[in-house]
Specification:
It contains 14 helices and 18 strands. It is an alpha+beta fold. Helix 1 packs antiparallel against helix 3, helix 7 crosses helix 14 and helix 8 runs antiparallel to helix 10. The chain is globular and about 70 Å long.
């Protein structure tokens, strides 16, 4: 990399240009659970900084990574070498019109920050699970949050975005302007440019009923099967997860059923949650009326050598046979976290071709995270692959934001053929040289 050119870049941007050896480098080289050693990090304070960073990367032939919150499961928001376009300083949250719910959010805003600001106006929209996760990456990939059944994916609330493309153009993408780009942004991740601001429509939601129900580990199969049946009849205001924590070689952990009822009506929430209190011998219950920001987890520190192996698939019909297969396979690992998330409702009402997120008809999403160091995962990869192969007959599709690896099978699951072909046309139009390759990548078509 040309040091003189990097010095010139630092003078041309409002933000910071951070190089190896700089005092700030150690604080900005890594992301959550992934180590990096980029050649340069540009902390962008505005759209023009993004343009300058991309121009520098092209001139110096540096691979580009884009970082908002730095929680990429696959480690794609840092790199070994290359340039990181860090948009975390673009974290403004502006309620443009509280009555209509129109909000402008910077890609670097964190979900906890966004939720608290919106809560002051009695507003919310489905977000991620963790307060520290950045708006940018999650919103472009999907956003399967705690009100997904009542308000859809986070991206379903997007009405416009400002995008800097690989060639330095600054475009507005909406239903009326660059509509093909707008379609691709909603589920196509960072394949087409760097988003510098989002406009979303939030909805009135001051508080929610949120909490947990605990069942014995010995009742896992009957609880999960009963949970599936109960959620089929549940009102859309209710979203629920089932979590099975690893034993780490000790006694099996209890089954945790998490619930979030989107609304303040105590009687309605109690009626909706009641069937989930009848799945077995309840060991504990802790459900309260809370402000929506309070449901977001705080990202805790993992052991320094841990790098969870995360995988997911969608389940169109969560049959008893699937549950039995899942639980039997999961028991062969003592460090595997398993989660099932209820879907449907508002998520399903959006046509599968309306956005680049095509997986609208699934009943459940199943996630696993194998905990521990990466070397352990690599040694256990044949067993993990065999376990997931047993689930293949029941699954169809995957969610890009919950994947730590992005192999050919994963990519085929994330983007069905029709969706991929349409995304490729958008890629050809806006990033034909695949400058934005550090993502669930849609490659440009071969040019002759």
């Amino acid at each position: 990399m040309n040091t003189a050119a990097a010095t010139a870049l630092a003078k041309s941007v409002e933000g910071e240009v951070i190089l190896p050896g700089d005092d700030a480098y150690e604080a900005h080289r890594d992301i959550f659970v992934h180590k990096g050693s980029p050649d340069v990090v540009v902390r962008c304070h505005g759209t023009e900084d993004v343009r300058q960073a991309l121009s520098f990367a092209r001139a110096e032939k540096l691979r580009v990574s884009v970082r908002s919150g730095g929680h990429s499961n696959a480690g794609l928001s840092t790199d070994d070498g290359g340039l990181v376009v860090d948009v975390s300083p673009l974290n403004g949250i502006d309620v443009i019109d509280a009555e209509s719910g129109l909000v402008r959010i910077g890609p670097g805003a964190q979900w906890g920050q966004a939720a608290r600001t919106l809560q002051e106006h009695g507003l919310s929209f489905s977000s991620g699970d963790t307060a520290q996760v950045g708006v940018g990456g999650l919103l472009l990939g999907g956003g399967i949050g705690w009100t997904v059944r009542s308000s859809g994916l986070a991206l379903d609330n997007l009405v416009a975005a400002e995008v800097v493309t690989a060639d330095g153009r600054v475009l507005r993408a909406s239903a009326d302007e660059n509509a093909d780009l707008f379609w691709g942004l909603r589920g196509g991740g960072g394949n087409f440019g760097v988003v510098t601001s989002f406009e979303v429509t939030a909805r009135p939601l001051p508080r929610v009923h949120f909490g947990s129900i605990t069942y014995p580990a010995s009742e896992a199969a009957s609880v999960v099967k009963g949970w599936v049946r109960a959620m089929r009849d549940a009102p859309e205001e209710l979203t629920s997860h089932v979590q099975l924590f690893p034993s780490f070689g000790g006694d099996p952990a209890p089954v945790i059923v998490l619930v979030c009822y989107a609304g303040e009506d105590v009687a309605a929430a109690s009626a909706a949650i009641a069937p989930l209190l009848e799945l077995g011998a309840v060991e504990g219950k802790d459900i309260n009326l809370v402000a929506y920001p309070d449901v977001l987890d705080q990202a805790g520190e993992l052991p320094p050598d841990w790098e969870p192996m995360v995988r997911n698939r969608f389940v169109r019909e969560c049959a008893d046979e699937f549950v039995d297969t899942l639980l039997t396979g999961a028991r062969s690992f003592d460090n595997l976290f398993v989660e099932l998330r209820s879907l449907g409702g508002a998520l399903r009402r959006v046509h599968p071709n309306a956005t680049a997120f095509a997986h609208r008809d699934a009943e459940v999403m199943v996630n696993t995270a194998k905990l521990g160091p990466r070397a352990d995962h690599e040694a256990a990869l044949p067993e993990i692959s065999a376990f997931w192969a047993t689930l293949d007959p029941f699954t169809d599709g995957a969610y890009s934001n919950f994947l730590s690896e992005l192999d050919a099978d994963d990519m085929a699951a994330v983007y069905p053929p029709e969706t991929y072909a349409r995304l490729q046309a958008v890629k050809d139009a806006y990033d034909p040289d695949n400058v934005f390759s550090r993502n669930p990548n849609v490659r440009p078509s071969e040019r002759t």
